[in-house]
Amino acid sequence: MAVRRRKSVVSARPLLGIVTCRCGFKITKRRPFAGQTARFRRLCEDARKLGLDVAVFYAEDIHPASDQINGMTYSARKRKWISKAYRFPDVVYNRIPSRKREANERIASVLDAVSRLGIPLFNTRYLNKLEVYRAAKKSPELASHVPDTRRLREAQDLYTMLAKYNAVYVKRSDGTLGNGISAVSKVGKKYVIRKNVGRKVLESKLTKSQVTQVIAGYVKRKRYLVQQGLDLVTYNGRPLDFRVMVQKRGDGKWRVTGIGTRVAGPNQITTHVPRGGTKLSFRKGIECAVGDNQKSARVLTRQIRRLCCATARQVEKSLDLHLAEASFDIGVDTAGRIWLIEMNSKPFVFDEKRIQAKASRYLLDYVWHVIRSGRTSARLGEV
Fold first, then answer.
1. Residue 196 has pLDDT above 70, yes or no
2. Under a CB-based contact definition with an 8 Å cutoff, are residues 347 and 245 in contact?
3. Residue 211 in this model has a pLDDT that exceeds 80
4. Residue 305 has what pLDDT?
5. Do the Cβ atoms of 362 and 373 come closer than 8 Å?
6. Amino acid 69: pLDDT
7. How far apart are CA 357 and CA 350, in angstroms?
8. Looking at domain 129-145+232-365, which CATH architecture does it have?
9. What contacts 24+ positions apart, CB below 8 Å, involve 31-36?
10. Per-residue pLDDT tens for 294-334?
11. Torsion angle in degrees (nearest 10) through CA of 86, 87, 93, 98
12. Strand locations in the chain, DSSP E?
């Protein structure tokens, strides 16, 4: 794809571009960006108050050899989305909504072209679990919080892990929302496999030879991991974990935006709400871990916050990414140990309204930081 440096365009207000795609989604006038429409509308409204313009555009419509792009912005006065032609943005926020779409050749080439034009692009791309674990494992500060994880290359990898742990998880390295996760344990001479299938969990008792055949199917797909099982603290007998949102703010530093608790649905493997999980306040979740000891609660809270910010810094640096936000699934086991379960570089909207509001404002604060840093660099002759 040809890349041409954009012409100088005078603009009274800096421009944030949000890139998404139309592939495979039902688009209407009221919901031109499907499930992301409400989030983008909030960003448009909040940005105006901070002196920023926002253009949301489809990656398929970007032609880097041109001097403008076609995008949309939300007009609070007219209460509708308006299509306009824009100059190329000062900063681009990557919200391509799926791994499959981001890997699309056309979309990938557009994202690459944006970077080559010298436009700051965040959040760079989706992560996979194995690269996150490996990056975190390199840090002495983080290594003890990373569950024992290995690529599933053959059935023996599963049996070796089961010899070390009472139960293990088999999961897709690129999975989301608990898709493709199985919990495996050995009971006598049989192996019990519990697998997520839609909103249901199917349980099977298999012989070793049968398990070997099942694992052969996973190995063939080359995207699976086997990971130690965790004995997480519970609420009403159901496992819980903590969902943590971290963001860079106006000074470019990582901080925690908010934390919620998610409780697994009845007989579920994961705590995801689409699979029957439920929300719980962070305070209640901490009480499940440490009881009503306020000092222990404060210590655990600080440890969770520190772990997430340190992991965001480490992963971003180790993988050479530009991230502005990330979310984490953090577990606490019955011995009080904190575990890094998952990191997501394209966070879903948190259910908690308070966290939603903060997330929008902090993202825009960081956009201003990037724009100002770019202007400073230009004055110093660095770009």
1. yes
2. yes
3. yes
4. 97
5. no
6. 87
7. 10
8. 2-Layer Sandwich (3.30)
9. 32/56, 32/72, 32/81, 34/97, 35/97, 36/95, 36/97
10. 999 999 999 999 999 999 999 999 999 999 999 999 999 99
11. 60
12. 15-20, 53-58, 69-75, 80-86, 91-94, 121-122, 149-151, 167-172, 182-187, 190-197, 200-206, 224-228, 234-235, 238-248, 254-263, 278-280, 325-332, 338-344
What is the percentage of the chain residues whose pLDDT exceeds 70?
92
Q: Which two tokens stand for residue 355?
A: 């966290």
On whether the CB atoms of residues 37 and 22 are closer than 8 A, the answer is no
- Each domain of the chain, given as residue ranges in start order, spans 15-122, 129-145+232-365, 149-228
CB–CB of 84/71 below 8 Å? yes
Tell the residue number behind the tokens 């002759």, with chain if given.
381
| pLDDT for the residue 277 | 79
CATH topology of domain 15-122: Rossmann fold (3.40.50)
d(CA 235, CA 286): 10
Alpha-carbon span 299 to 321, nearest angstrom: 31
Spatial separation of the C-alpha atoms in residues 124 and 113, rounded to whole Å: 13
